[in-house]
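User: Hey, quick favor. My workstation is busy. Could you predict this chain's structure for me?
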Amino acid sequence: MKKGDVFGFILLALGAGVAAGMLLAPKSGKDTRRDLSEKFEKVFEEACDFMTYESGRIKSKVSETVGNLKGRFDEK
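Assistant: No problem, here it is.
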């Protein structure tokens, strides 16, 4: 099985599990939607924070690497 096929299968199984959980949940639809909305908002904020941190870290590494390369070329 290819990696893409495995990843697709995992996403499909995850989606089916979420759908089954929502259908069998003891909460009302309104409560479930509110809870999901809050969880998605929290995950989105965490993902944004992570991406901001990682982009700054990558930018720093790229700048450092460019500076090192410039120094090497200036020496020669």
